Amino acid sequence: MVKWWLTANPVEYCLTKTCWRGLTWNPRQAYFSNKPRRFPTMLKLDCRSKLVFFFSIMALTFICRDLWCMLAILATAVAIVAMKDAPLLGRSLKMMLPMAAVAFITWSLLHNWSLFQSGGAGLDWQLGGFMSIRLLAVLMVSTGFLATVKPGELMKGLSLFGMPYGVVFTTGLAFRHVYTIADEYRAIKEALSSRGMEFDKGSLIKRIRNYAFLLTPLLVKSVENAEGLVLAMRLKAFSLDRKRKWRERLGPMDVLVISSSIIPLTVAILHYYAGVV
């Protein structure tokens, strides 16, 4: 963090550290922009409604056994990711489609060897297509959850649901550590690439050896970050015995999202397991 006494203009430092609603400050170009910030509807929801929604839709991916139901879940997850970040959707599909193709071939040819599926021998293209779509739905819902729910919102939501503070803190800290490790990984990889080390070219053995050189500084940096975190917690006299509770009321949109998430999940459970609906 740059201190104010290290900057050429202390006023510029103060302005960059100030939060302006509806205004964006660019210290390089030195102007204010009244351009309104537009956020997707999912980002404006309460953290509890987000958690209930993603838990319900993830549970539906494992409960539903109909192809059209799975396609609807996949379309919903794709719409959420596209609404959050369209480039993220393209990158995600680029990685997920080969995995879905492998799952389609595997389940179509080797379904009789599965521990979770019983059936006759031979080809079953319908089962292969269903399982590949289910895999895409699980991956896309997970991507939407990570892109939409921030670690702070996850901690706040779990605390509001009555989870123990130790569990809430550990879960939020683990998610924050994942983002930190990802940033450190990119920085170390760019530094090694600038020195001439190639990670995407050459033989498999050579690429594995190059990635081994990448993992060593990443591990050292992770230990340093952990030591810094422990030191900060000691200086702040942090204790897991403290109880922090947020009390906020749900808005009409939150109630609508929670209701529309719980009702399909209840109907699916009654239909597939109880045979009532």
Automatic annotation (TrEMBL):
Membrane-spanning residues: 51-83, 95-113, 125-146, 158-179, 253-274
Membrane topology: Multi-pass membrane protein
Cellular compartment(s): Membrane
Signal peptide (from-to): none
GO cellular component, one term: plasma membrane
UniProt keywords, alphabetically: Cell membrane, Membrane, Transmembrane, Transmembrane helix
Protein name: Energy-coupling factor transporter transmembrane protein EcfT
